[in-house]
Amino acid sequence: MTRKLYQEDSYTVEFTAQMLDKRTHGKYTAVILDQTCFYPTGGGQPHDTGWLNDARVIDVIADESTGNVLHIIDGEPGSGQVAGKIDWERRRDHAQQHTGQHILSETFIRELGAQTVSFHLGEDASTIDLDRNDITDAELQAVENAANEIVFLNKPVKAQFVERDDLDQIPLRKAPTVAGPIRVVEVEGFDWSACGGTHCNATGQVGLIRISQTERRAEQLRVTFLCGRRALEDYRRRATALAQIATYLTTGYEEAPAIIQKMDEDSRACQRQLQEAREKLAAGEATTLLVEAETVNGKRIVARAFDDRDFQSVKRLSMQLREEAGIVTLLGWKGPEKGQVLFARSEDIDIDMREILREACKTVGGGGGGREDAAQGGGMASARVDEALEIARGAVSTRLT
């Protein structure tokens, strides 16, 4: 069984060990040592990385059946005795997040009676899932304040193995699920958790604990949080963004939210006015097109291609025209490269516009679909939109006569 030095001291970064086994693991090599500082993935915490001699350790896996630790390496570590070195920045980051999670989970219990049901330490942020989803913003702030108070007190954090018969003497936050002696991580006088992960030696080393967002997931609440350097970098990004916004608005950062809210309200009002103007313009344009429309057997055909507007405005115009009785609209849009067509009719005309679309696309290319009263197609070259409308006009005229 591999001796797990990371359980004895999370701050040991270099060690020597005897290689016990070396085997193929996919396209890489897996090495088993008599002792290791490399933490394997488990308990919601990712594995360590680092080096064995000059070979890069890219993954670490716990073999639960043997108690050994497999080091997946990219390179050749040699044989016999090896020198190991973990990536300290990654280890310290994981220790900050994991110890911060212990503090945060216990604080949620003490402040709100909310139990942590799962924990995940991610590359950019970490999460805990709570067994209730009705927590308010004010309650989250109170939890965040209380958790950071434990950080400021710089309480010692220590780990020890306890026999199962002695666990009754320890107020564990959650009962362990594994057999044998249990490793208990204690935040002195505050939290006792069965945990095999790597941790800080004191709460002050966690740095700031910040709750960054929450998400309701059925009956649970997912809380995303950042600790230590991650929290610092998050505050730095937010402060930089806010400063840039304030500079752009030529105001202080305190006034920026109110100014942005006013700009958003003004923008929404402008959008409403613009929409009203577009509807009036479409109504006026529809009137003009109806006056100029070709008449076949008492029905009017409006055929027109546009290259001075977006396709959505063409659709709005088509809808406006169809409100009149006895109308067939054959509208086209010439995009920068490709074109689109929209064929529609009034309810009192018995023509399947999908058939008209197929006839046009058969000649000019492209395709589409829709309903009997309205069909839309695209994919043809913009230069052939006029040809598509002419083909459609001829097909409609034939059916109306």
Task: Write up what this structure looks like.
- This protein has helices at 88-112, 137-152, 229-248, 256-292, 311-321, 353-364, 385-400; strands at residues 3-4, 14-25, 28-33, 35-36, 50-52, 55-63, 68-74, 81-86, 116-121, 126-130, 157-162, 182-187, 191-194, 209-217, 220-227, 294-296, 299-306, 327-334, 338-345, 367-370, 374-381.
- The chain is an alpha+beta fold.
- It has 3 domains: 3-86, Elongation Factor Tu (Ef-tu), domain 3; 91-240, 2-Layer Sandwich (Threonyl-tRNA Synthetase, Chain A, domain 2); 279-400, Diaminopimelate Epimerase, Chain A, domain 1.
- Strand 17, helix 5 and strand 18 (327-334) form a beta-alpha-beta unit.
- The termini are far apart.
The major β-sheet equals: 6 strands, antiparallel, barrel
* CATH topology-level fold name of the largest domain: Threonyl-tRNA Synthetase, Chain A, domain 2
Biggest sheet: strand arrangement: 2-3-7-6-5-8
Poorly predicted parts: none
Order of helices and strands: EEEEEEEEHEEHEEEEEHHEEHEEHEEH
User: Structural class from helices and strands?
Assistant: alpha+beta
The total of helices stands at: 7
Radius of gyration in whole Å, from Cα? 34 Å
What is the count of β-strands? 21
Nearest-integer average pLDDT:
93
